From TrEMBL:
Transmembrane segments: 49-72, 84-102, 209-232, 252-279, 285-312, 324-342, 393-409, 421-446, 458-481, 487-505
Membrane topology of this protein: Multi-pass membrane protein
Organism: Nesterenkonia halobia
Subcellular location, record wording: Membrane
Region Disordered: start-end pairs: 1-24, 522-550
Protein name: Polyprenol phosphomannose-dependent alpha 1,6 mannosyltransferase MptB
Keyword Transmembrane helix: yes
């Protein structure tokens, strides 16, 4: 046997200390590399469509429909909604469809791991194909869209939605509005009130058509996101295909912004368009676009100071920054005053913005602290009624302080990141964090760079968590069937099974847990300066690669 052959023969090797450990480690690493081979995106594209079709089918059985809906009177829909077998099948289809879409999303990202080339076109095609079935689905995961109907009727009746709940209009409950909205003031901006009233004026009592029109407005928001994410990513040296994949092809965004028809889609799309316009030096257009976003939901008012910084340009002195801040604020105030005057609601939305909401959710930091503190005080026999209100006030003060610090301090090269963290502070330190609130932040994180280590895994975990929660929590089941609790348990069991399978067994998805993502950084070693990017490609370095720098 030659010397080289002896070296290659496993039987001829002498045992070495730690050899067994290295062999086990090698096998574990190989386990994570099993799917590293390049793959065609065709399979994930088809799989995502199948998942979306399953969600569509399930939505007619356990999604939100009202009794006066034409769809609710179809024979096969009645069968799905009134027979136990139909409800069980619909719950399984809805939940399983979400996880098929989730798996397709991860597989698509793996197939396009290197991105570049035509990956942006492929991701955009995937987002479109996966979204198409949801254009005609029954609302799922939330029934806020039915509140839009009631608020539009309020405006048409000459009442102020900032002072009156939807219960003041006749037949409000039969139009599907959640009882939580009965006495609640609207949290939406005056421009969205116009949209609500316009839709209800056009559709009357045709609930199905009204939902389709509200969904069309949300689709417009998603299209704006789809258009703005790639150039913003390029501006920060991030691969546009990867940013688009994390954002627009994301199943949580498709379900929350299209299936649920949340107006947040329009708010986020307009805000991103404003940020891109500001980065291009078009301050007036940028301010007007962000004002339109504020008119949908006032929370995006936090973006205005940073729009002023982008408008002021690179190297702006403090007098110049103050001048552009004043110009931005004055332009926004004039437009909002004019809208409030014409619309008739004035600045009622300001009181909504100042409020912190009622209650909390168990996954918010304030909710976690409130639960821990109140439990401790109760165990000691002390009063705990004050904890939530106190924590909400502290959260609001801390978030405002963070926003002010980010306004006045930080690198000019990271204005968009500062804007991102300001909005993040407002969301995270709020007692109520709905799943779709996180989609306000995801595009900004994606375009500024999400690393392939724990950051990407956290995105995947968050999407999985809220898919499982939404599929279980928001099921419309007739009370006489007495199946609501069992269907929630069935949905949760399906979700846990799918999560365990994809994390530990499925060769197409287990790489997320065992390996992470190697080629996930921006396309440039250092992020481009958004304050000086006036023309596409001015600060890009095609073909380079590197890690994200926050």
């Amino acid at each position: 046997m030659t010397e080289q052959a002896a070296a290659d023969d496993p039987a001829s090797r002498t045992p070495r200390p730690g050899g067994r450990s290295r062999e086990v480690l090698s096998r574990i690493q190989e386990f994570g590399r099993t799917e590293h081979r390049p793959r065609s995106p065709r399979g994930p594209l088809v799989e995502g469509v199948l998942g979306s079709l399953l969600v569509l089918l399930g939505s007619f059985g356990v999604g939100w429909l009202v009794s006066i809906s034409a769809a609710a009177r179809l024979d096969w829909v009645i069968l799905l909604r009134t027979e136990p077998a139909g409800v069980i099948a619909s719950t399984a289809a809805l939940t399983l469809g979400c996880w098929v879409m989730f798996r397709a999303w991860l597989r698509l990202g793996r197939a396009l791991e290197g991105f570049g080339g035509r990956s942006l076109r492929t991701v955009t095609l995937a987002a479109v194909l996966w979204s198409l079935p949801q254009l005609v689905s029954a609302p799922i995961f939330s029934r806020d869209v039915f509140a839009y109907l009631g608020q539009g009727r309020l405006v048409l009746a000459g009442r102020d939605p900032y002072e009156t709940g939807v219960s003041s209009v006749a037949n409000w409950f039969q139009l599907g509005t959640d009882v939580l909205w009965a006495e609640s003031e609207t949290p939406y901006g005056p421009i969205f009130l116009w949209l609500e009233a316009g839709v209800m004026r056009l559709t009357g009592d045709d609930v199905d058509l009204a939902i389709l029109l509200f969904r069309a407005a949300c689709v417009l928001g998603v299209v704006l996101i789809m258009v703005c994410v790639p150039p913003l990513a390029r501006m920060h040296g991030v691969d546009p295909g990867r940013a688009q994949w994390i954002t627009v092809a994301n199943p949580l965004l498709i379900v929350s912004f299209i299936s649920s028809a949340h107006n947040d889609a329009l708010m986020v799309g307009l805000a991103l368009a404003g940020i891109w316009a500001a980065a291009r030096g078009r301050g007036v257009v940028a301010t007007l676009l962000v004002v339109l976003s504020i008119g949908i939901k006032p929370i995006t008012m936090v973006l205005l100071p940073f729009i002023g910084l982008l408008w002021a340009g690179p190297g702006a002195s403090w007098p110049r920054r103050l001048r552009y801040w004043a110009m931005t604020a004055a332009l926004a105030a004039v437009v909002l005053v004019a809208v409030g005057f014409v619309q008739g609601s004035g600045f009622g939305w300001v009181s909504v913005l100042a409020g912190t909401g009622t209650g909390s959710v168990f996954w918010s930091p304030i909710g976690i602290l409130d639960t821990a503190l109140s439990t401790l005080l109760d165990s000691l026999g002390l009063a705990s009624y004050w904890t939530l209100d106190t924590l909400k006030l502290l959260g609001r003060l801390i978030s405002v302080a963070i926003v002010i610090v980010l306004m006045i301090r930080g690198s000019e090269q990271h204005i968009v990141q500062r804007m991102m963290w300001a909005l993040t502070a407002l969301v995270v330190l709020s007692p109520i964090i709905q799943p779709w609130y996180l989609l306000w932040l995801l595009p900004l994180f994606a375009v500024t760079g999400i690393r392939g280590d724990w950051q990407f895994k956290w995105v995947v975990f968050t999407v999985a968590f809220f898919l499982a929660f939404g599929a279980m929590d928001q099921l419309s089941i007739w009370n006489f069937l007495q199946l609501e609790g069992r269907m929630a348990a069935l949905s949760l069991a399906i979700s846990w099974t799918c999560i365990a399978w994809m994390a530990l067994v499925d060769r197409g998805t287990r790489w997320v847990l065992f390996q992470g993502w190697r080629t996930c950084g921006p396309t440039a070693r250092h992020a481009a300066d958004p304050t000086t990017a006036r023309r596409p490609g001015r600060h890009e370095r095609p073909g380079s690669s590197g890690d994200a720098h926050a």
